[in-house]
Specification:
mainly beta, Porin, 2 domains, 10-stranded antiparallel sheet, two-stranded antiparallel sheet, elongated
Length: 259
């Protein structure tokens, strides 16, 4: 699927204005793809809903004229639903997630402010054979930081963040995530869906918060180094359920090589 030169899809039956610049197709970090034009300062990108777009640019982000703006934004992940059977019971679970950010490209260090939200269902009744805990298949370990503390099952996350680009090779990012249980009758799970903190009858939903700071350095074209610091404030649920410590910290460094 690709965009033809100077064309974009129809939106609600109207033809989008043509542009003379060649388009190129890039892969975005979501289910959709990105149809990006070499933009002059007075042009921005915005998403086209699949039900409003037809033609070769369906499911794409295309450029339209607009007044000059100092930011770009992106958000989308969708709402996956899970159905099936679990032993003699049935599965009915869901998850909603979004990652929203604004990047001020004309400001020094190009600051980027963001807000990540994530809601994943948990089991309502452990005595009932039906299951409502969402199974995040092949999930990333970065949900609660590089320390891979907890997974996203039965969890609610609200995390504002700030990123600074000191150069093309050096970036600093920071965020503060706040976490709750979606269901007070279910526990907290690890990345591999192992039960880390059982419910134990505790009704408190607040799981705690985790400020995170990360430094990324692109040393060469293929090699990059990263350092991440996480401080964990355990909430009332962990302290009541397993008598966890009030706080703890992690420093996970790592190196990435891409050929």
């Amino acid at each position: 699927m690709s965009c033809k030169r100077g064309t974009c899809p129809r939106i609600r039956g109207e033809r989008v204005p043509r542009f003379p610049w060649p388009a190129r197709l890039q892969q975005a970090s979501s289910e959709h793809e990105l149809c990006e034009l070499p933009e002059p300062p007075d042009r921005i990108r915005f998403p086209l809903s699949p039900r409003h777009a037809t033609g070769p640019c369906s499911h794409l982000f295309c450029a339209l004229p607009a007044r000059p703006r100092r930011f770009r934004s992106f958000n989308h992940r969708g709402r996956p639903q899970q159905f099936g059977s679990f032993g003699v019971g049935t599965i009915n679970a869901w998850r909603v997630a979004a990652d929203n950010w604004y990047s001020f490209s004309s400001v020094r260090w190009r600051p980027r402010i963001g807000l990540a939200t994530d809601f994943a269902s948990g089991d309502k009744n452990p005595a009932n054979p039906d299951l409502q805990t969402f199974d995040s298949l092949f999930q990333s370990g970065t949900y609660s930081g590089r320390a891979n503390i907890l997974g996203s099952d039965n969890a609610i996350r609200l995390e504002p963040s700030l990123g600074l680009f000191f150069s093309e090779r050096l970036r600093l990012s920071a965020g503060w995530g706040f976490f709750w249980r979606e269901s007070s009758n279910d526990g907290l799970y690890g990345i591999a869906r192992n039960l880390v903190v059982p419910s134990n009858g505790v009704k408190s939903r607040y799981e705690g918060s985790r400020p995170i700071v990360q430094l990324d350095w692109q040393m060469t074209r293929h090699l990059s180094t990263h350092a991440n610091y996480i401080y964990v404030f355990n909430g009332s649920f962990e302290q009541q359920s397993i008598h966890a410590t009030a706080s703890m910290s992690y420093i996970p460094p790592w190196i990435t090589y891409r050929s």
